[in-house]
Write a structure and sequence with these properties.
The chain has helices spanning 9-24, 28-53, 57-68, 71-80, 99-108, and strands at residues 89-91, 122-125, 131-134, 154-157, 162-165. By secondary structure, it is of the alpha/beta class. It folds into 2 domains: 9-80, no CATH class; 89-165, no CATH class. Helix 2 packs across helix 4. The longest helix is centred in the first third of the chain and has 26 residues, at 28-53.
Length: 183
């Protein structure tokens, strides 16, 4: 990488993660939680950091100055919040609990949208014979996926459902894959 190129977001997140984990590991109670939760904690950190980064600038500034000192510290606090639990069954209805929200809930072990919090090796139950249509990428940073990247142990019970790409009405959609697993 040349001097003029900025590092990739994943590189920055990894460095932030390493920095805050090293600092947190000096506190015995935090060190125990970090060891117990392992890789899932890292995924939760990334998830919360990205959610915080999407907040308006004023909110990010408030978090940095008044709450946690940095967005990365706030993301680590959020990642450590919530007790580890056993597998959840997340019922996707396509309205209250969307497939995107269900994957996010399973990845982060938190309630997202109308979906219950995931925990452990979650099961996502899709409605029988449903069609899930996507015209736009949920995330471009992972190479263009219709759905969030699966970063935890998830079983999807399809029940004859279909995931498909549809042409966007504004003509701005891209070709994308339906699903990516990085676990």
């Amino acid at each position: 990488m040349s001097e003029n190129q900025s590092p990739q977001p994943e590189f920055i997140l990894k460095k932030l993660w390493q920095l805050h984990i090293a600092e947190a590991a000096r506190t015995p109670s935090l060190a125990t939680q970090i060891l117990e939760r392992g890789q899932r904690l890292a995924w939760r950190f990334v998830h919360f950091y990205r959610r915080l980064w999407k907040q308006p600038r004023q909110m990010r500034r408030f978090i940095k100055l008044k709450v946690a000192g940095s967005l990365a510290a706030a993301a680590l606090y959020l990642a450590l919040s919530g007790a580890p639990a056993y597998a959840a069954t997340i019922v996707v209805d396509g309205t209250t609990c969307t497939l995107i929200d269900a994957i996010d809930a399973a990845n982060t072990d938190t309630a997202v949208g109308g979906c219950v919090a995931g925990s452990g090796a979650d099961v996502l139950q899709l409605p029988a014979g449903a069609t899930f249509s996507y015209a736009y990428e949920d995330n471009a940073s992972a190479g263009g996926n219709a759905l969030p990247v699966v970063t935890s142990e998830i079983t999807i019970e399809g029940n004859g459902s279909t995931i498909q790409q549809v042409p966007p009405t504004d003509g701005l959609g891209d070709t994308m894959r339906a699903l990516m697993v990085d676990f």
